[in-house]
Amino acid sequence: MPDNENPINIEKVKRKLADSPHRSSRRLSRELQLSRTTVRRILVDDLNLFSFKIQIIQKQSTVQKEKRLAFAKLIAGKVEKKEIGIGNIDWSDEAHFHISGHVNKQNMRNWGEEKPDPLDDKPLTQEKVTVWCAVGYKRIIGPYFHENNEGSRVTVNGVQYLDMLKSYYIPTLRRREELGSITFQLDGAPPHIAKVFIDFLREKFDKQLISRNCDFFWPPYSLDLNPCDFYLWGYLKSKVYSNPVPETTEDLKRNIRHEIRQIKEETLKKVSENILTRLQ
């Protein structure tokens, strides 16, 4: 009798999943000392289960959905008319990287007969670094770490964010001779929309701004339209916690810098092109 048809093996897999439906087929294989092929056949053929990828979603109101649709139509229309180039937009954001590790949602699965409610895990420690990047066509500006002169992480507020733009982002654009051609995107987080902050950005970018209180209104709950969120952060968090494993925040920052340098221009080009597909 094949292992996957053995009632004893089927019952063992069933009991393991009853304890925790988040076990991967690899882990089940290891714990039950069965081949991974056998485990997957039991899961799919005998127990009729599916592997659901865990996704974190945010509920949107009708008004929020309308704002997203209006933004997508506006930007896609501007690109189609060649009034703005999708390759001339810098998409920016910050993310926290915890020294304790991360939740790799790409590897999160839940075996069951029905799709589960969204789940999330919280880091066990607050020791972390806060990273800012701007993803553009074929290049990334960053990483920039929000920290004080002693190298300690600081909370991002309007003053801190404005200082980053003046001391780092704008000089980088000038050095690359890109300042007059870039449209700058930033979300509607409070540090990004203070009047003094928006006034500074209007002086540098005129109307080529995507954010709240700007001509191109960035819609709420639109992480899926920002390549920092739908590509960069997830990719980095799948890389920076190994080879070597970071033991300090300095190790973690070094890994982040290294992995960003390894991202190929062709990959970023495809990411930029994917934005238009998402808008459409």
From TrEMBL:
Q: Which InterPro entries match?
A: RNaseH_sf (IPR036397)
Give one GO molecular function term: nucleic acid binding
The protein's superkingdom reads Eukaryota
Identification of the protein by name: Transposase
Write down the species: Oopsacas minuta
